[in-house]
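Example for tutorial group B:
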């Protein structure tokens, strides 16, 4: 099966079957060591004041803000003012041009933003190979699985891993292992 939701379902079912046959858990089968993780709650795109009000209601110390090309600075300034205590990351969902990234990234760094996810469209991000971003950039759509990791590693400092993108836990674990071996940071998305 090609990578995607159907293969993810089959892959996860096979992990579950193996765990049941061995009388253990999938978690234990992976061999992953338990360590602290952080949940990042999301603020959706909207008017700056609406986004700020939503951010105020989030009770976690980390917030992911969805942005597009319309009023990104006004939106992020409103959220930063509403939640000066929060660590904020931004997900642009392929919504900026390279010029917008160049113009906004230094200001976002000054505001304390700690990461920008997928600023440019998939397939239109080659300019990132020669760009020294003041904030770590995270690939989402630009790195679906291990076949795209080498290219993504030249453009991004982090990879967002999602089971539906990779086609399941097996490929996701391999992507995580290879990304970490290249010194890249990881984020895990759940596609809710």
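The residue assignment follows.
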């Amino acid at each position: 099966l090609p990578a995607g939701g159907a293969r993810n379902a089959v892959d996860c079912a096979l992990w579950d079957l193996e765990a049941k046959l061995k009388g253990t858990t999938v978690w234990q089968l992976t061999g992953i060591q338990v360590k602290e993780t952080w949940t990042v709650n999301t603020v959706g795109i909207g008017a700056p004041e609406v986004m700020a009000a939503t951010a105020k209601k989030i009770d976690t110390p980390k917030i992911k803000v969805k942005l597009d090309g319309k009023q990104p600075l006004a939106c992020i300034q409103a959220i930063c003012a509403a939640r000066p205590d929060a660590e904020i990351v931004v997900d642009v969902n392929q919504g900026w041009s390279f010029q917008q990234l160049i113009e906004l990234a230094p200001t976002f760094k000054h505001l304390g933003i700690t990461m920008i996810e997928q600023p440019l469209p998939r397939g239109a991000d080659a300019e990132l190979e020669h760009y020294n971003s003041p904030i770590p950039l995270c690939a989402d759509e630009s790195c679906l699985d291990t076949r795209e990791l080498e290219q993504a590693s030249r453009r991004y400092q982090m990879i967002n891993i999602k089971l539906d993108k990779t086609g399941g836990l097996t490929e996701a674990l391999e992507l995580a292992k290879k990304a970490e071996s290249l010194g890249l940071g990881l984020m895990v998305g759940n596609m809710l």
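The longest helix spans residues 5-22. Compare this with the pattern of hydrophobic and polar residues in the output above.
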